[in-house]
Amino acid sequence: MTASRVPERPKVAWDTAWASRGACRDIDPETLFVVGAAQHKAKAICMGCPVRVDCLADALDSGAEFGVWGGMTERERRTLLRRRPDINSWRSFFQTAQRSEDYATPAIR
Q1: Binding-site residue positions
Q2: Binding residues for [4Fe-4S] cluster, per the UniProt record (predicted)?
Q3: Which residues does the annotation place in the binding site for [4Fe-4S] cluster?
Q4: pLDDT confidence bin for 17, thresholds 50/70/90
């Protein structure tokens, strides 16, 4: 019997140089500023990115209006912001969630 592995969530780096480690750092930026079905391809670039959460927090906190950031389209980010107007800092929100998860998840050996 094989043990199933839970995909590892990207750890949150929380530094200002996160963009230099992004999965998109070497691609044409226009690839992330597309509409329609092309957004699925752009979002796929983000899925394995080690700084995806940093990127998303930055986009949400700065009000980025266009493009795919942190794996979310502008429409998805607007929806999230409308649903959670109580969050003043997404960076702090994600940091708190990360700490809670680290604390609540026992080490798997």
Answers
A1: 24, 46, 49, 55
A2: 24, 46, 49, 55
A3: 24, 46, 49, 55
A4: confident
